[in-house]
Amino acid sequence: MNSDTFEVENFTLSASAEVPGVIHEIGLLAKHKVLIHILSYIHNTVLVQTLVREINKTVPDAKIVLLKHDDKQKTSVVVFTIDTDDAEHISDEVLKALYKDHSNKNLSIQEYRTELFKRYFTDHLTNLPNLYQLRKDLENCEQCGLILLKIDNFQTINNFYGFVVGDYVLEYVGKYLKKVLSPNQVYRLSGAEFAISLDENLGFYHLKSYLSDLYEKIKNIKVSYQETQIFVDFTLASSSDRINNNIFSKVSMALMYAKKKGVHFWIYEDKMHFEDEYRRNLQLSSIVREAVQNDKIIPYFQAIRDNKTKEVTKYECLARLIDMNGKILSPLLFIPIAKNIKIYNEVTKTIVNKSFAVFEKNEFEFSINLSIEDIMSSEIFNFILNKLKNSHAASRVTFELLESEAVQDFKRVDRFVSEVVRYGAKIAIDDFGSGYSNFSYITKIDADYIKIDGSLIENIDVDEASKVVVDTIVQFAKKLGIKTIAEYVHSSVVMDRVCELGIDYSQGFYIDEPSVKLNL
């Protein structure tokens, strides 16, 4: 039977008033043999009986079949017309046509599923196998090697030229790698990351030679886009571990390490214990989350002495974390983790709240450390301003800005300083003399105090160079009318040198160790 000899028309009715229109349409179809299915929740209704009566009048040769369906509101009419002389077996012919149509649909569905499955394992931009295909291939090959390649400057390319050019670069790189690395299979993973699989897992020295040759082959790829020449560089990583389990994780860790070190490539070896660091970070992440949720971030207080009066006049508030076992963790351990897991703002707000609560009950001055992230954060900026507006301790707080962090936007810093000073708060430049220290930083920020970094103060009694640097900082600060504070004063000898140099305040274990309570 040809498909053009079999036709199907569908009608839906919800009231008897619609019957004449449907009957008219059915009459136009009655040039062939006709089979009509009437589907209704109940057959003994005015609508159904009217349909049957009118169909018999209009198409007396039509074969009518009453069927049930679950829709209580509507009645459906399906008209099958077929060009055949075998009127007796019209239902069989219709069933054959429906079966054929169903078979064709099943075939189309199967083809669609195959295509969809293929797309699931293919990167749509480069048409290379994707991460899912790579994982599948690695599972099926116990001795395969793996190399990851990441474009170093792709973020810059994408930001500067736009995503259209960025996509063009990725597409070009994919084709280039497929061409020059044949017969090895090339994969495009996520972002600017590609991979190639090797037939065998090479030993360290063989793999090192292979990666060196590979890097020379693909370094400085030049991509031409219209009149623009774009150069693409890679960082590579692989694993020489004979045990092939978790190879993707191992090579990924090696790639991150290579990027961090700024080298062309890195080879994972078990003795590097990368997993231990990741495991520690995961454990610390859990500890930090638990501490924030259960109010276990607390301030410790360390006294600051006035070198002229020999009296304690200030305290620095230092963040500490109490873990599930009651152990106190240093901010050097948990602050970087808090930043990575996006809950650092909660740590800052907790320390600010608890510090203000303590010093609103006395007349001591106190200082709180703020990072560049704190100053750049609108959330923290507004939180601190609100705290200053509503606290009578606002005129006694000093915000210590960590000078060891690079400042990209001095306008934001200047705005922060201007706003908090309006409420009587003061500003200190912390850790001066280390990291990104430079004297222009002091001139750009209207600071009240300079805290001289402990690395200079620690050996000031035995290191003449440190003494000269500290003396220079002190004299410079005096000319600007800025008070100085010496950190890490750990002995009476160092204390004497600090006083000799005319430093205004001292802080360190010789004076006071950080404590959960004020040493009054």
Automatic annotation (TrEMBL):
Entry-linked SUPFAM superfamilies: EAL domain-like, Nucleotide cyclase
A GO molecular-function descriptor: cyclic-guanylate-specific phosphodiesterase activity
InterPro entries (UniProt xref): Cyclic-di-GMP_PDE-like, EAL_dom, EAL_sf, GGDEF_dom, Nucleotide_cyclase, Rev_trsase/Diguanyl_cyclase
Domain GGDEF intervals: 142-271
Domain EAL stretches: 281-520
Pfam families cross-referenced by the UniProt entry: EAL, GGDEF
Protein name: EAL domain-containing protein
Organismal lineage: Bacteria, Pseudomonadati, Campylobacterota, Epsilonproteobacteria, Campylobacterales
